[in-house]
Amino acid sequence: MRPSPTADNDVSAPTTGLVAAPGLRTRRLRAAALAVVLTVVLVLPTLTGCGDSLPAPGHTPTATAVSSTVPSGVPADIPDTLAEEIRWQRVIDEDNAEVYHVNGVMAGASGPIVVTAHGALGLDPDTGETTWSFRDPELTGSITGYGAVSSERARGRAVLSPDGTRLVIGLGAGTFGTRLVALDTATGEVLFEHLVTGYAIVSERSVDLHIQVTDHVVMAEREVVSLEDGSLVATLPEDPAVVDGDRTCVRTDLDYCSSYWPGSQGGHSTLILDSTCWAPGDTDTSWCELTLAPDTDPTASRQVGGFVPIDRTTGDAEGQSNVAGENLDDVFPVLTPPIIDGWTVRYSDSDAAYTALSTNGADPLALPLEAVSLDALVDADDAAPVPLGASGRTVRDYGARTLAIVGADPSSAGVIFDPATRQVQDADEAVEQAVGPGYLDALAVTRSGADLDVTGPDGNVVLHLTSDDAGVEVSDAYLVQAPGVIVAVDHHRRTTAQGGKADETVIFGIG
Fold it and tell me: CA–CA separation, 295 vs 214, rounded Å?
């Protein structure tokens, strides 16, 4: 095993040497993996931090921001299936002062990205070694709204552009302030910094900053800045739906409606400025209207209706999650439509659907659906809607690459839509084929006793990862489908030989 090109920044050494399974797409040689690392030290302005920006007792991070970068290479394809064995394993000690805590693992444009409490690390998909790193003395903070979110979304501390080429991290910058740092996910290069101040306090809980990222811009409160250099693209007018830091529906023609903070990702070239949902008939909320704008002209907004809200039982938008174990007692479930790779789900004939719901008392689960590109709705591309050939409920699945529709009949597996290929597939068929993003989205990382496994939707073990002693407490485990590798991530706390507790993140290269 070759030494890590950034060994001075590594917090562990990966274990490699196992072969990949047949049937994987041929990988192209990654120039970045062979390149000599260029190290740059960035001295950033010192800002007074708020309470949760202070280091933990005994925690001494680097005094200045440090960025280790690599030249850009040709990214590999995302594997279609799992390997027959573990290819490599990486253990990260979360008590390491330069890491302190792993917020989550995400899929960049060239491989997995580990988002830490002080920045991020890029991993080589072939070995698990660090290819680039960025760390800052300040702690990362939430930029996707208040509350806890899945570690598959880095607990709201970082947001990827829809194409995965840019990562925006939020860092502490004093009371009522957050410093946004944008990184190139292929090289780790710092593209710009942008200070956001003056946003609201919500329910006296925490500072509530919402950002949204397209492939070209980041919208932070009312400012829209370029992802290339941080220059100001536009300043949006005050949002009438924001009252005392929270959102209120401003529609006067409805008996009841709710306005939600949009998710952290828009379309590839489309910003979502607002999501308002209501029930046109006597059923539960079944209709959402989005305010959309092209990211080239964010002030040229338009309202588009007919979007299908998420099923309440499957989770919510970032920052306001009702996923098991991540509840906020007084936060109402968020129903905004799931956005995957710039696509979402809409009623096939929105005018006819609204009439059927509001006048005829139609069952929203019986109406035909289609997948639509947000960019097409603002004339940023010409992608045609794709009929889904099914009706039912939309499902939110953190980290997924496909949109899933679950049939009204609980025994129905429903269908999945792959935005990359624009193909619709029966969910059961995708699982049976054991290949492709629909199959991979159906897998989970589960623990049964001491065993950690990748399991299918039927609960059967697809790949055994490891067997731990009884001292391991698992907090979170999931799959990440990244260019060049599929990884299983296990955040856990274990009991040390001295009887103490140690937090670790273990990453397995398995595809």
Answer: 8
On whether the CB atoms of residues 185 and 165 are closer than 8 A, the answer is yes
Spacing of C-alpha 317 from chain mean position:
10
Give the three-state DSSP class for 268. coil
- SS3 of residue 304 by DSSP: strand
Q: How deeply is 444 buried, as exposed, middle or buried, from its count of CB atoms within 10 A (0-12, 13-18, 19+)? A: middle
Among the listed residues 205, 198, 210, 142, the one whose alpha carbon sits nearest the alpha carbon of residue 170: 142
* H or E element at residue 467: strand 461-467
Mean pLDDT by 10 residues, the chain (511 residues): 38 46 31 34 33 36 68 85 95 82 94 96 96 93 72 87 96 83 96 82 54 96 93 91 80 87 91 92 87 96 93 51 37 70 95 92 90 97 93 79 82 86 93 94 89 93 87 82 96 82 92 89
Query: In 174-233, which ranges are continuous DSSP H helix?
Result: none
Identify the H or E element spanning 351: helix 350-358
| Helix segments in 25-72, DSSP class H | 31-34
Question: Residue 466 pairs with which residues in a beta bridge?
Answer: 452
Contact 24, 483 (CB under 8 A): no
